[in-house]
Structures are given as structure tokens and as C-alpha cells.
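In this supplementary section we document a worked example of the pipeline. Step one takes a protein sequence of length 189 as its only input; no multiple sequence alignment statistics are reported here. Step two produces a three-dimensional model, which step three serialises into C-alpha cells for compact storage. The input and output of this example are shown verbatim.
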Amino acid sequence: MNPVVRIVVVAVTGIVLGLFATWITMRGLPGAVSSGVWVTNLTTGSPASDPYTRARVALHGLFALNRNETIYYTATKDDGGERLDGKCRYELRGRDPNARWWSITAYGGDDFLIANPQNIYSVSATSVVRGKDGSFSVAVGGARGPGANWIPAGDGAFSLTLRLYNPGPEVALDPSQAALPSLKRIGCP
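The serialised model returned by step three reads:
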């Protein structure tokens, strides 16, 4: 093989492998635990976080607080394991998580809020309408339904972030045991 061709092949292979390894590192969640569809990283916002976790927070989240102050959960898939798609309609169903205050916000594939004419981006402990039994149901995606709770999800891939501010001691000790809302796909056009 010609030495110039060999150098080009080696360089291109190295670049491709380097980019792939970086992508895997940035998208993966070492230290991750999950509760249902919700995933969190135990080192987010702490001095114990590695450089890759810090890079992920810098790229995908702003100003992460430590685990005693806030636990951040992310859902990118529904209860059936399917990727969240703004063209589909979902139902979040649950009760207030064990925290002083909580919120659930939808983010587009670019990690920014999803623009919508209603300027609705989230539900929270103070805005969600609950049933008589204390439970809540939130429609996600699609057009606003008959219920009072709704989060628009745009047209493409999206994620939901659940923030638990001042989580209860049991949740802070073991976030994988938190009772968090389910996320069921209702249908797609």
C-alpha cells in the first residue's frame, strides 16, 4: 500500500474511532441508577463526578446542584422502552415524589425548552392539578386534551427532566427506590 494512502487511512480511522469513543462517553451515564423510566447520575453536582460527567452536565444541563439539594432524573423512553417522540401522545401518572418541591420539564433534542404558542414547558408541585386521591395525570405531547395538565412536546425526539428539590432522606440515600410517575405511550398518529 502506498505510504500516503496508509497515513490517510490510519488518520481517518483514528478520527472516526476517537469521535465514536467521545460520543459513547458523552451519551453514556457511568454511575447511573434508574427508577422506572427515570435515570439519574449519583455523582452529578458533586466533587466525586468524573470529567466525563462534568462535561455531560456542561453540555446538557446547567448549574447542577448536589444530590442533597436536588436530584435530576431524565426520561428518554416510555414505559414500553420506546424513544420519546413529540408526534406521539403520552400520559405521566403518579403522586407527588418525596421532595419539598418538584417539577417535570420537556426538552427538545437540542436540550432546550420546546417552543410552543402556549408557553407551557413544565408542570410542578404547585401547578399540577391532582385528583381527589392526590394522584395526578399529565398529558405529554399532542394537542391539549380534556385534562388540566399538559406539556407540549414538539414534533421530534424529546426528553423529560424531573427535578426533586430537597429530596426526602430515603430518596437522597437511594434514588433508585424513589416512587416516580409512570410514562405510558397513548398513541401516535
